[in-house]
Amino acid sequence: MNELHGAGVALVTPFNEDGTIDFESLGALIEFQIDEGMDYLVSLGTTGETATLTAAERKQVWDFTAERVSGRVPLVAGIGGNNTAEVVKQIQQFDTDGYSAILSVSPYYNKPTQEGIYQHYKAIAEASKLPVILYNVPGRTGSNVAPSTALRLANEYSNIVATKEASGSFAQFSEIMRDKPASFLLISGDDPVTLPMMSIGAAGIISVIGNAYPQKVAKLTKLCAEGNYTDARTIHNQLLKITDLCFVEGNPAGVKYMLKEKGIISSDYVRLPLVTVSKETQNAIKQEIALLA
Where is the catalytic site (predicted)? Predict the structure, then answer.
């Protein structure tokens, strides 16, 4: 899966002030990502506020994104949940035209055992026509996909091709890298650890801050892939503060405000239970944008 090397971005879903999807801004965001050198795009991951979209809205976003991208870069669709049967149904009904892979988050809230996580992904792998990327984000799901479970899936299902790791555990990253099949990819799920993860062999990042700074994120991963960690470290350090501001009041509220401030999208509206960032955070974001200009 060479298409999953380098910099991917988990696209936000822009909304109008009345809460409807702002397809004009979504189109502008897609063009911005492609023009600035992002390697691939992820439609409707966590950053896309997927949990607040209806089934009809998800289809509209996926169809619009595929049509707008028109094969210029690879596309990944985020399809996950904590009801395995429903996730399988969504995957079976998904129109794969224009898409290269599916990113599927580990089941949240239920807190399944490792065997439950394995069986969940087994059902997904057997249902999917596209390659599958595991997504481990314990801070959101309430459970961890153990390296042994990720490796079991990687070894038993050839269409499970990568894991997006956001556990924060370098012991876990290292175990996966040591024991994984040669073709299986480790992908960073946290912007601040992309450089050190790539230093141990990760393929790149599925980024949040890349929405607002795609060129920097793409350059960072390219430098790391070339082994030029000195220059990569400069970009890494530049992005630390602005990345922190993405999450200080919740994702994607922070990065949506950045995109609005930079004129990429028209509104920073987020759907409840998320709310827009405070004036204090807005001012901090404005200051950091000015420093990075």
Answer: 135 (proton donor/acceptor), 164 (schiff-base intermediate with substrate)
Angle at 272 between CA 269 and CA 276, to 5 degrees: 40
CB contact burial 229-250 (16+ within 10 A = b; e otherwise): eeebeebbebbeebbebbbebe
**206 is an annotated ligand-binding site residue:** yes
For Cα atoms 36, 195, 262, give the angle at the middle one, nearest 5 degrees: 35
pLDDT computed for residue 2 by the predictor: 87
Binding site annotation covers 221?
no
Asked if residues 119 and 89 have their Cβ atoms less than 8 Å apart, the reply is no
SS3 6: strand
Q: In terms of CATH, what superfamily is 2-228?
A: Aldolase class I (3.20.20.70)
pLDDT at 1 over 80: no
The pLDDT tens digits of the residues spanning 63-106 come to: 999 999 999 999 999 999 999 999 999 999 999 999 999 999 99
Q: How far apart are CA 205 and CA 166, in angstroms?
A: 10
